[in-house]
Amino acid sequence: MSKEFKLPVLAENVDKVTVTRVFVAVGDEVAMDQPVLEIETDKAAAEVPSTVSGTVTEIRAREGAPLRVGDVVLVVKDNGAAAPVKAPAKKEEPVKAAKPAPAPLRTVPPVAPTAPKTMDAPAPAPVSAEVETEEAEALEDESTEEAAHVRRPAGSPVAAAPSVRRLAREIGVDISEVPGSGPQGRISMDDVKAYSRRVNTDVRGASAGMVAVSVPLPDFGRWGETERIAMNSVRRRTAENMAGSWTTVPHVTQFDKVDITDLERMRKQYGKRVEAAGGKLTATAIIVKVLAAALKKFPQFNASIDMANNEIIYKKFYNIGVAVDTDRGLLVPVIHNVDQKNIVEIAVELNGLAERARERKSKLEEMQGGTFTVSNLGGIGGTAFTPIVNPPEVAILGISRASVEPKFVDGAFVPRTMLPLALSYDHRVIDGADGARFLRWVIEMLEQPFLLFLEG
Q1: What is the pLDDT of residues 62-73, one digit of tens each?
Q2: Res 24: pLDDT
Q3: Is residue 270 located within the same domain as residue 374?
Q4: d(Cα 122, Cα 129) in Å, to the nearest integer?
Q5: Buried-most residue among 48, 78, 117, 335 (CB within 10 A)?
């Protein structure tokens, strides 16, 4: 008899993925729990194991095409089954032809098309007295929430009553960026209010492109050869999230340096012990452990802000994400319950998470639940940078390359290894003084590790 393998639920809030690789072909033998598919979400790539076994008779998943939870990936025949079992596959042939239809979504250019869709012009009689021609930029229409709103091509008139324009000015909204829900895209009071709420209180809405402006591009072909490559899902989500964060989160960055001369000596002394356990004793692993104690002492850094309800959510768990550079873009696997693990355990887990992220083998649950993020660029170089907060988190620590510098100690300059740190945080939740105290506390713990036993 024939059996179908359908895409299972992979993680919370993940109902659609993109197929990046198919590991089997028609005629192959498939065993239970054998990886048959590699998929990519906006946060991770993962292998999907089969829940059926037998000979593959049909493959409906296509590389580069989307799949939803419940879609049929492949059909198998039990080994030794009679020939008539092929009949059901023929009955489902129309379904097979229909599934690949969404594939063209992967080829949509990542920038606004040069020829905007045409639409009927507003009726001149009732609108002409209230319409002003303004310099407008087209917004990308990727959000399903705005399906009923009409987008204006760049440079087209903005239809709105004087009272609506006045409201937009008073609350600081650019009327040309508001999608109208009325006839021919006419903007109402409710449209302006809804747009303002999305921009100022909904980070997820901002990430989905609510406030991302598609800047009109020139014809680059006038100056030379070009190539357009569609963004992969990781790069697209990174672009959306970072644009949303920068637009909605008032960033402040606190810079400082920590003297890690003594810490480096201990790191080298005990590095072999960690390597024997399967990890690598890095400055990141040590800092992650110190941060767990810091987040307990400064709970506002382990929080999220809910502007819709005017509340701050303080989390009682400590999950720290560590940014990993991969060939697909930046991924942030998460070390869960850091406060319950020692440095050896953290180092081993961090090593495994980074390897799986680079090899596209991350589990989806490893990419979720972070409460604070660390981004270490020290292995590449640079003296400082401004990390961007990763919502719904409210803070992120950036680490640059350590260098030996002269430091005035006990009346003389001595060479010390100094590590630059940059703490970015959401100023809506964290005040500047708290940012300075947090970073100084972390520095004290790194310079005098015994204090961690006293205060951590």
Answers
A1: 888 888 888 999
A2: 92
A3: yes
A4: 12
A5: 335
Rounded CA separation 104/65 (Å):
8
Number of H helices, E strands in the chain: 12, 19
For position 416, which CATH number holds?
Answer: 3.30.559.10
CATH number at residue 23: 2.40.50.100
Q: For residues 399 and 419, is the Cβ–Cβ distance under 8 A?
A: yes
- For residue 264, tell me if it sits in a domain: yes
> Is pTM beyond 0.70 here?
no
The span from the first CA to the last CA of the chain, in angstroms, equals: 61
* 427 flagged as catalytic: yes
What lies within 8 Å, CB to CB, of 80 at 6+ separation is: none
For β-strands 403-409 and 412-426, DSSP reports them as antiparallel
* Residues 91, 144 share a domain: no
Q: Do residues 258 and 363 share a domain?
A: yes
Contact 83, 55 (CB under 8 A): no
The catalytic residue among 149, 251, 336, 427 is 427
| Cα 150–Cα 152–Cα 153 angle in degrees, nearest 5 | 140
Report d(CA 249, CA 314) in Å as an integer: 18
Give the number of residues written for the chain: 456
pLDDT tens-digit series, residues 328-361 = 888 999 999 999 999 999 999 999 999 999 988 8
Q: Which of 175, 173, 171 is nearest to 187 (CA)?
A: 175
Q: Count Cβ atoms below 10 Å from residue 133 Cβ, excluding itself.
A: 9
Determine, yes or no, domain membership for 228: no
Task: Kindly state whether residue 288 falls inside one of the protein's structural domains.
Answer: yes
Residue 186 tokens read as 């006419």
pLDDT at residue 43, as a whole number = 64
* pLDDT digits 0-9 by tens, 214-241: 567 888 988 999 999 888 878 888 888 8
Residues 336 and 411 in one domain: yes
The edge-to-edge listing of strands for the beta sheet with 45-49 is 45-49, 35-40, 16-22, 66-68
What average pLDDT does the structure give for the chain? 80
Tokens of 11: 């993680």
Structure tokens at 118: 């045409």
Q: Are residues 378 and 443 in the same domain?
A: yes
Last residue of a domain, one of 74, 104, 134: 104
Give the structural domain span for 356: 250-455
Burial, 427: exposed, middle or buried (Cβ in 10 Å; 0-12, 13-18, 19+)? middle
What sections of 50-161 are H helices per DSSP?
A: 87-91, 93-98, 124-127
